[in-house]
Amino acid sequence: MDVVRWLLDGDPAIRWQTLRDLADSAPEDVAAERARVAHEGWGARLLAIEGSDGLWDGGACFPAGYTGGEPGQPWTPTMHTLQTLQILGLDPASGAARRAVALVAEHGRWEHAGQRYFDGEVEPCINGRTIETGAYFGVDVGRIVERVLAERQPDGGWNCEAENGSVRSSFDTTIDVLDGLLEYERATGGSEAVREARRSGEEYLLERNLFRRRSTGEVANPAYLDFAFPYYWHFDVLRALDYFRHAGAAPGERMADAIELVRSKQQPDGRWLLDRIHPGRVHFDIEAPVGAPSRWNSLRALRVLDWWDGARVPVN
Q1: Does the residue 159 lie in any domain?
Q2: Using one digit for the tens of pLDDT, what is the confidence trace for 262-289?
Q3: Fewer C-beta within 10 Å: the chain N or C terminus?
Q4: Is residue 26 part of a domain?
Q5: CB-based contacts of 313: which residues, under 8 Å, 6+ apart?
Q6: Short-list 178, 302, 315, CA closest to 240
């Protein structure tokens, strides 16, 4: 089948990124399609359910009144929703984005200790994602950046358990921080300290071929081989490769096994399936069910392979 045409039959969030990354469309056509994210489809639906206090589901990391006991993790609060809007590509210059983010900045407080939302809290996995969305939407998140730079582990990455004494990095936290630092660098120009921290986090992942234990070469976590969307705080191979593509990294042999995994998952019709949905409460399904063709996975896999094969220049 014509996979690009199939992608262009999807939500505006899929269409504008397909036009930009796979169809070589004119910038004005890409911008016009991107503008629709705020008014149609998934983006418009998420914006419409922001509370009058600026929060989604009444909380920053957890819903208002959340006491646990639900399957998985609730994905409806502000942090996860802002990340989804950023992945959808909501134009940060749009009136809808400016209104939404201004409300979060004014009223958002972390459940940890009542910190202002864009001041971050104590866990680098949360702070990395807050840096990413804050920088993307034009908020000054420099103070959080300083904190995560100081929290790098001796092995080069980050771990959310650092406050509890961990001295080893994790794949999940490291990719969260890398995504944040990359977006901060793009938004502000960054600094040598930010670039050096990104290089060390990248090296942490590359030393492990993006999914293996450094000590044994075994798969670190079978879930890393499943391509999920939305991915929230979770690591997987496709997310990691899309980070390196977005960062403009040079393809290297330490990514080769991960690339072959992506190739192996392409179906005979040219598409990729949705391997996993991280369990938990959602506003609505973006992609379902598991095992069905996935526009998000297909879009991301195709642009990763284009980058790897040298067919296109990574997009700034």
Answers
A1: yes
A2: 999 999 999 999 999 999 999 999 998 9
A3: C
A4: no
A5: none
A6: 178
